[in-house]
């Protein structure tokens, strides 16, 4: 019996049980398609990275003796649409059964269910064998609970998977080292340069252009840095352990104008494409830590484990718990448009200029740049979360809806009304000043609230609190801020609001 097995672009797990044995009656299918390149405008590096990783995956399984078909984006017989591609293969290879792996995106999950319902042959669906948790494990964990606290979920995961545990006690006698992980980076330890593969990707970049795919962002075609095979991803992991782990936790929240990546791992694409599994990443990191305890403190390692075992699994669980409604949420009723400088990087705000230009140049920004600079700005300027989501989904190399949307719409924009965050992640310029060196060289003055040179984050912050005070009045965690607002001189607040409205009216002049 001929069996067709679909592998989506973010399912590049060569270690999956499907590939443990070669079966002459099974054909694997991989396809680059306009359906996937066009649902949002993507960064050019993201499209290049996915296509190259898919091509390398195909070569690997083919070399192992598996039968596989691959549609390149420019192939004349490529129907560019999942349903049509599956139908064409079923007919061409006289397929009797179709199988696929559980997609991580709601959109594709629905599409594949519909495709299978319409097929005249049998079909089956299998787990991707990637995550620690099943799709609905988080929903079951929080069943009947009002607050979906990540911390509770994370501690249970640590115990369940026995990671960084000493019997029933967490290693280091503490679950959480967050308080130690908030250092400002002042150049006291050198940051190793990022692991760069210096690849020439001109061929695939030309094919993307030839196919007419509209992308944005920048690329140096002769010097592509991202890993696009399992071997390269393993090199990035090894590089992280040897060079970056020892300061990862310390500078997790820091930003610096000379250091785009600081001590971050840049492993999100490797994991989100499933070339690496979170389990092997954490097991490797923890084993490295145990061998090097004299040099690496527990707070660095716990910080890293928390991101992957905690946040990454939690975010995925929220996505499957809340979709499809989650995609429509706009609790704060924000409707403004994203300014043009998100596509050009042209702004006088030093922090925004660095974070956006870096995103356009590298298809990457680290967590605090995404949350406390760019996301903070879009929330304070009350941009429509649909627009914010689309930008984040397009720009970052690791952006796939299951992880992008709860982080952006939920954690960063509070559009879910507090499912993820108990209060909005907003701040005036003082937080950015505390965690970075941006303000020292900025056109604006971080100490001022109004006037031509006032830091826009200051003006927008107080205006946001005033505009949303009714919405947040019952939120205890916002009490202190709202009290300060209440005590503000009405004349001063009026001037702030006039200035904030002028900013929002003409964001591109910032
Ligand atoms: P490191 O700082 O080295 O962290 C290690 C790993 O932890 C990451 O590779 C990632 O897999 C995981 N991780 C850390 N934080 C989170 C988180 N909040 N949610 C899920 N995983 C996490 N991450 C994505 O993978 N895709 C996205 O589209 C995405 N969009 C985001 C949007 C916003 C507004 C925010 C605030 C965060 C977003 N994140 C997203 C989470 C985080 O910013 C990235 O995972 C991280 O910056 C990737 O870089 P890194 O691999 O160097 O991470
Ligand atoms: Fe950003 Fe304001 Fe600091 Fe300028 S002064 S870098 S706009 S926080």
Automatic annotation (TrEMBL):
Pfam families: DPRP. It comes from the Bacteria. This is Cryptochrome/photolyase family protein. It comes from Flavobacterium fructosi. The lineage of its organism: Bacteria, Pseudomonadati, Bacteroidota, Flavobacteriia, Flavobacteriales.
């Amino acid at each position: 019996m001929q069996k067709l097995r679909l592998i989506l672009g973010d399912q590049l797990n060569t270690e999956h049980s499907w590939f443990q044995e070669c079966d002459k009656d099974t054909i694997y299918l991989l396809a680059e398609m306009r359906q996937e390149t066009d649902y949002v405008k993507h960064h050019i590096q993201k499209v290049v990275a996915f296509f190259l990783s898919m091509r390398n995956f195909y070569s690997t399984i083919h070399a192992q003796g598996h039968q596989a078909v691959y549609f390149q984006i420019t192939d004349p017989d490529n129907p560019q649409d999942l349903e049509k591609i599956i139908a064409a293969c079923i007919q061409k290879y006289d397929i009797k059964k179709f199988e696929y792996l559980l997609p991580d995106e709601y959109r594709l999950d629905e599409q594949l269910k519909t495709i299978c319902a319409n097929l005249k042959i049998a079909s089956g669906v299998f787990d991707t064998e990637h995550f620690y948790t099943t799709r609905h494990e988080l929903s079951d964990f929080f069943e009947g609970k009002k607050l979906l606290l990540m911390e509770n979920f994370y501690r249970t995961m640590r115990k369940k998977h026995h990671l960084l545990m000493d019997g029933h006690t967490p290693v280091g006698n503490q679950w959480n080292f967050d308080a130690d992980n908030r250092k400002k980076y002042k150049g006291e330890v050198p940051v190793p340069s990022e692991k760069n593969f210096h690849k020439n990707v001109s061929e695939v970049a030309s094919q993307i252009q030839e196919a007419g795919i509209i992308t944005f962002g920048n690329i140096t075609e002769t010097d592509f840095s991202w890993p696009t095979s399992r071997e390269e991803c393993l090199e990035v992991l090894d590089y992280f352990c040897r060079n970056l782990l020892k300061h990862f936790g310390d500078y997790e929240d820091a930003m610096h104008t000379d250091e785009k990546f600081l001590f971050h791992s840049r492993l999100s694409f490797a994991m989100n494409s499933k070339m690496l599994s979170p389990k092997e990443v954490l097991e490797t990191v923890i084993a490295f830590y145990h061998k090097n305890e004299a040099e690496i403190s527990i707070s660095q390692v716990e910080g890293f484990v928390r991101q992957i075992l905690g946040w990454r699994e939690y975010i995925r669980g929220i996505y499957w718990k809340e979709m499809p409604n989650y995609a429509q949420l706009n609790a704060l009723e924000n409707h403004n448009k994203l300014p043009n400088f998100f596509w050009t990087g042209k702004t006088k705000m030093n922090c925004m200029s660095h974070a956006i230009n870096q995103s356009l140049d590298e298809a990457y920004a680290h967590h605090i740049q995404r949350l406390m600079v760019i996301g903070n700005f879009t929330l304070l300027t009350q941009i429509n979360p649909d627009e914010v989501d689309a930008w984040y989904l397009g720009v970052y190399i690791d952006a796939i809806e299951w992880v992008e949307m709860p982080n952006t719409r939920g954690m960063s924009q509070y559009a879910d009304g507090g499912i993820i965050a108990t209060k909005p992640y907003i701040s005036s310029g003082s937080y950015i000043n505390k965690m970075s060196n941006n303000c020292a060289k900025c056109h604006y003055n971080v100490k001022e609230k109004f006037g031509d040179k006032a830091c826009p984050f200051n003006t927008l912050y107080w205006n946001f609190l005033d505009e949303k005070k009714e919405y947040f009045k019952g939120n205890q965690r916002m009490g202190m801020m709202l009290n300060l607002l209440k005590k503000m001189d009405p004349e001063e607040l009026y001037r702030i609001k006039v200035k904030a409205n002028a900013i929002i009216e003409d964001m591109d002049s910032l």
